[in-house]
Amino acid sequence: MPPTVLNSVFNFVQFWDGRAKNLQEQALGPITNHVEMGHDFNNLIPKMEKTHYNDKFKAIYKDGITPYNITNAIAEFEKTLITPNTPFDKYLMGDNKAITKDQKEGYEIFKNQGCIACHHGINIGGNLYAKFGVISQLKSDSKGRLEVTQNELDKYYFKVPTLRNIELTAPYLHDGRIDELEGVVKFMAHYQLGKSLDENEVKKIVSFLKSLTGKINSY
Ligand code: HEC
């Protein structure tokens, strides 16, 4: 599944397998990839120069429309797609009433059970690679980082994804194999931590995860 562009500026690398090191490098792929947009810059740029983009680019970039400047502009735009000030952010900043009792308990369980070992930092994820299936083996068509590094030790390693706005970005996991948040929380507990959570704990974690939903640029 395509990872969300929301808050992607805070991820340490882009894509599930980290094959692009930043947003600008990511933006280059789809423009020329034949299964995505299939452009050739040698044809695209003269076409763009005949449109209003010509003046707009000249106003910002000395050398006008170039592959570098196109991807730079896209990356700069993507940096604005952030969703700050979620209820959980407000809670962390001291507003004790910003999240519910269930969400607070869910946050405690999230920390105590060890989810936080991988999902942490500004994006509650997006900081490291981790194996898909730490405790029990999993199978997947994608081999994760191995496909980028060709190193057998990287098999099934994926970027730990952000959990911001997670209630809005189903289906879950790199291959979209799970549709419900409850299901993915149980899956994580089992495969990543070797734990089985009771229904109540799962519900509270899900409730906590919903406190990570925000609006674009809600400063
Ligand atoms: C050892 C590291 C690790 C631990 C511990 C861990 N996760 Fe994850 N989590 C991951 C990785 C890696 C993925 C991405 C897996 C994939 O699809 O390849 C992921 C994916 C997810 C997703 C789906 C994200 C999406 O965009 O599809 C959710 C939700 C999630 N984790 C929640 C949790 C919860 C809740 C816990 C604790 C019960 C937890 N995780 C524990 C590493 C971890």
The CATH architecture term of the largest domain is Orthogonal Bundle
CATH C-level of the largest domain: Mainly Alpha
Main beta-sheet annotation: 2 strands, antiparallel
Radius of gyration: 20 Å
Q: What percent of the residues sit in helical stretches (DSSP H or I)?
A: 25-40%
The kinds of small molecule bound in this structure are: heme C
What is the overall silhouette?
A: globular
Number of domains: 2
How many strand elements?
2
| SSE sequence, one letter per element | HHHHHHEHEHH
Looking at CATH, the homologous superfamily of the largest domain is: Cytochrome c-like domain
Low-confidence stretches: none
Mean pLDDT: 96
Strand order of the largest sheet: 1-2
Structural class: mainly alpha
Query: What is the CA–CA distance across the termini?
Result: 29 Å
CATH topology of the largest domain: Cytochrome Bc1 Complex, Chain D, domain 2
Quickly count the helices: 9
- Strand portion: under 5%
List keywords for this structure.
mainly alpha, 219 residues, Cytochrome Bc1 Complex, Chain D, domain 2, two-stranded antiparallel ribbon, 40% helix, 9 helices, binds heme C, globular, 2 strands, 3% strand
Provide a compact summary of the structure.
This protein is an all-alpha fold and 219 residues long. The chain has helices spanning 23-32, 41-49, 53-60, 67-78, 87-92, 101-113, 146-149, 181-193, 199-210; strands at residues 129-131, 157-159.
What this model shows, in words?
It is a single chain. The chain has 219 residues and is mainly α. The protein folds into 2 domains: 8-78, Cytochrome Bc1 Complex, Chain D, domain 2 (Orthogonal Bundle); 87-210, Orthogonal Bundle (Cytochrome Bc1 Complex, Chain D, domain 2), CATH 1.10.760.10. Helix content is 40%, strand content 3%. The chain contains 9 helices and 2 strands, in the order ααααααβαβαα. It has helices at 23-32, 41-49, 53-60, 67-78, 87-92, 101-113, 146-149, 181-193, 199-210, and strands at residues 129-131, 157-159. The longest helix is centred in the middle third of the chain and has 13 residues, at 101-113. It is globular, with a radius of gyration of 20 Å. The protein starts with 22 loop residues before the first helix and ends in a 9-residue tail after the last helix. The protein binds heme C. Residues 16, 110, 113-115, 117-119, 130, 132, 134, 158, 160-161, 163, 166, 169, 172-174, 184-185, 188-189, 192-193, 205 line the site of heme C.
